[in-house]
Amino acid sequence: MKAVQHFRTITKHKILVMKECFRVGLYRQGLLHDMSKYGWTEFRVGCKYYQGTRSPNNAERETLGYSSAWLHHKGRNKHHYEYWIDYGLDGKKALIGMKMPKNYVVEMVLDRIAASKVYKGDAYKDSDPLEYFTHGGTDGYVMHEDTKALLEKLLRMLADKGEAETFEYIKKVVLKDKNFSY
After folding, report:
1. Cystine design at 158: which of 24, 62, 119, 166 (Cβ 3.0–4.6 Å)?
2. What percent of the chain has pLDDT over 70?
3. Strands 95-97 and 85-87: what pairing?
4. What is the pLDDT of residue 90?
């Protein structure tokens, strides 16, 4: 039964992100979003640790001390800032966040919206993705400062102005305006 429930949850999430991506013009990313979740490496963990109210990866992490599914997932999906962590060029060999291309930052925003909608259900509010992002502070993220600034800007816009205005801004300014840089 958990396999069916997990399949429904990840498919609901994928369809929500796909619709959101289509609304802002990211058709290819919408179609390909989170396909790795259907592969055995990630799917079996989702089935084993399925709860329906949060990511099964958190439950696996609590049990094992790490999440094999998450390590697999983040390394294959460019809309996760963790995909963009690399060694810096300053000679210190410290891991740092690389600046993400804006289309993947947008997909990350849409992914957070869809995840909040799936897990919050009817209780979802446009402020939920921002609250999840800022919960406990944002200093712990190994994320490029420009990437973090754009992510937070779009999540704040969503919380303050709603989905329609935020998606319009993403479509017409962030993705289409050739002069938009962050």
Report:
1. 166
2. 100
3. antiparallel
4. 78
Total domain count for the chain?
1
- Structural domain including 85 reads 78-174
**86 bridge partner residues:** 96
d(CA 164, CA 108) in angstroms, rounded, equals: 17
Residue 118 domain flag: yes
Q: What pLDDT score does 145 carry? A: 96
The answer to the question of residue 134 being in a domain is: yes
Report the pLDDT value the prediction gives residue 157, as an integer from 0 to 100: 98
Contact indicator for 107, 26 with CB cutoff of 8 Å: yes
Angle between helices 2-24 and 102-120 (to 10 degrees): 140
Domain membership of residue 137 (yes or no) is yes
Q: Which residues pair with 22 in a beta bridge?
A: none
Low-confidence ranges of the chain (pLDDT < 50): none
Note the pLDDT of residue 124.
98
Distances from the Cα of 34 to the Cα of 59, 64, 101, 112, angstroms = 19, 23, 18, 13
